[in-house]
What does this fold into?
Amino acid sequence: MDGRFYFGFGFDVHPLIQGRKLYIGGVLIPFEKGALGHSDGDALLHALIDASLSAAGYPDIGSLFPDQDPKYKDIPSTALLEETIKLLSKKQFRFYQVDLTMVLDEPKISPYYAKIKENLGILLKLPEERIGLKARRSEGVIFQKDKPAIASFALVVLEKTSK
It folds into this structure.
């Protein structure tokens, strides 16, 4: 790999069910349903992790943190991101910019944008102006009312700090 900037794209989706907590970007969102997953089901962080791994030339999130491994059961996705950042550092990468989009019909996420961006800034060591964060509703086209879910897309730009 040679160059200064490296790009990666990630995607994740989880059904929303009763009895689980909803984490988005490492922030607990008050809602009666949460993401079904082996870990805490934070689809936004999972997409971000996958994009980051891709940009740095690593295997995907499922290969590095397999859902068959009991040590990842209910693990906070922030812990998976911390492990990912350690891997990136080994190859002299750091985050330069991220652009994240969520798709979910409920709950409304805009009241939590500031908290999510603040948390992402801390986790990624990025100023908030380098964090794009958006949410869209599927309008019933992607997710049906009786099968709610959250999907997330991530574009990551990593900067190589040395050769």
